[in-house]
Design goal:
By secondary structure, the chain is an alpha/beta fold. It has five helices and eight strands.
């Protein structure tokens, strides 16, 4: 067993490792409250499918944690880990059944999260045509510029050009 993790009955009680990108061992079902408390060197966490619960404050004061990976979906954001994991659940369900109206509505409610997933999954979601319309697309293009998410801004500008007959494209923008 990996000595970086203190695990009891599938419950990760405490992380003792050096940080960086941590891969939680398969078989862990719960990340206990304060398990990673104050791990300032923690940059990214990959969760196995076996994790079904992350207790409050499990990643409290992990100020450099900016990326989680769940179901092969990478989410890089400053949102709370709990929120990112919840969004990963919605996104997984959406990718499995993009025609489910309830899931699509849930995804639209948390639309800004979409910009923090990896580019491959962002493109898949974009092409479903379920998230952006002529009313909101210009706002989100500006939002992406403000957040300096230029690659996704270019993709969204090109989507606007293709689907809404806009002269605005991302061809002249540089990453």
């Amino acid at each position: 067993m990996n000595q970086d993790f203190e695990i009891e009955d599938g419950r990760l009680i405490k992380y003792h490792g050096a940080g960086g990108h941590v891969i939680i061992p398969d078989g862990v079902t719960c990340i206990a409250s304060c398990a990673f408390w104050g791990c300032k060197s923690l940059l990214a966490v990959t969760f196995p499918d076996s994790v079904t619960e992350v207790q409050d404050s499990a990643f409290y004061a992990c100020k450099n944690l900016k990326k989680i990976i769940r179901y092969g979906i990478e989410i890089s954001s400053d949102y709370a880990v709990q929120d990112n994991l919840e969004y990963a659940e919605y996104l997984k369900a959406f990718l499995e059944n993009p025609d489910d109206q309830e899931i699509s509505q849930r995804m639209r409610k948390y639309l800004p999260f979409l910009f923090y997933i990896d580019t491959e999954h962002f493109k898949i979601c974009l092409e479903t045509g379920k998230f952006f319309d002529q009313k909101n697309i210009s706002f989100f293009i500006r939002y992406l510029n403000h957040k300096q998410l230029y690659e996704k801004q270019i993709l969204l500008m090109n989507y606007k050009h293709q689907h809404f007959n806009s002269d605005e494209t991302g061809e002249n923008l540089k990453l």
